[in-house]
């Protein structure tokens, strides 16, 4: 990413912002301080997610004629609120939402295409997987300022006390049988008297089992994308037919059923290791030894002062993770579309994104928004499978990213600026057939 490509930062948006007032449904009243009129942009976001207060405050400092009215809800309620407010006559101007939903929202007419606002060279510089994830029918609806990937986090206080040393490199990644043995060893109590769970329940939705972003990985990892396409192993990995019309024979293969049974037994029976109901902040509060979490969880644990470690996602046969993260878009019915788009461009490109990424990323080698390769550092490597035989519907299965030990290991990150050399496999609804 070159500085020439990214001059479209917060300070560089004054002209666009001044034009936005003219493009609004009704022109704001002019004042001495704001000749084009002051604008208030409404924002809907999930708690502790973007657009963040820091991003908003930075933008306001550079654009004093713009103010914001923020409405935030728990993450589990975000999608339902977007579905209600998005098509209404008075929607929020800006929404923070889960990027794997981009194509769904765009196809329903909830999002505004952003192509005419994109800075020159953006499409050449962004990671292709991210571009694919945030596009629909040839148009861009969000810029995808960050990507998350799942991993196995652990509370070192608890694992050290139990004498457990989780692996920290892909070539040593646990199978699910090995991981469950560690969960049981670290767990305190059993049955109805579990004081410390081996594995924290999901925080997605209401914390109950079944969130596909997290839990579908149990089934998919029991498959193998390198086997013949008519094999049950191949179908298990993809979990969905090429045309997107069938799950029978894909989601209920013998391998998938066996993996689902393993998953079920984690919640019940003599080897129960996790809770059927939500348990917020379990790792932070020493109520669980391990947790399957996205990479942005790093910042949460650091702020809480938790001594933690990160291990690769366990698997049955094929290591695989899902990616995708909260992104920012403009609603199609926004009355301040130009001004809202100017804000989205500012926080998703340019100097403002760079500053924010540097503050919110883990320390490690980064150059010009791209991550340097560090062959000496063990990593969680997330790679896209490049398969010319994959159908478009299968490409829409949440993030098609097998994970394998590789020679050029790169450190895992969260909230990184996008570039063509960003961590391989970032993005979500990408079409592997287009990435040969």
List strands and helices in order, with pairings.
Layout: H1 14-23, E1 39-46, H2 53-62, E2 66-73, H3 75-85, E3 94-98, H4 102-107, H5 122-125, H6 128-133, E4 135-136, E5 139-140, E6 150-155, H7 156-161, H8 176-186, E7 197-199, H9 212-220, H10 232-238, H11 254-265, E8 288-294, H12 297-303, E9 308-311, E10 320-321, E11 326-330, H13 337-348, H14 350-360, E12 366-367, E13 370-371, H15 392-395, E14 401-402
Parallel strand pairs: 1-2, 1-3, 7-8
Antiparallel strand pairs: 3-11, 4-5, 6-8, 6-9, 10-14, 12-13
List keywords for this structure.
D-Maltodextrin-Binding Protein, domain 2, single chain, 4-stranded mixed sheet, 29% helix, 436 residues, disordered C terminus, alpha/beta, globular, 2 domains, 14 strands, disordered N terminus
Please describe what this structure looks like:
It is a single chain. This protein has 436 residues and is an alpha/beta fold. The protein is built from 15 helices and 14 strands. It has helices at 14-23, 53-62, 75-85, 102-107, 122-125, 128-133, 156-161, 176-186, 212-220, 232-238, 254-265, 297-303, 337-348, 350-360, 392-395, and strands at residues 39-46, 66-73, 94-98, 135-136, 139-140, 150-155, 197-199, 288-294, 308-311, 320-321, 326-330, 366-367, 370-371, 401-402. α9 packs across α11. The two termini are 23 Å apart.
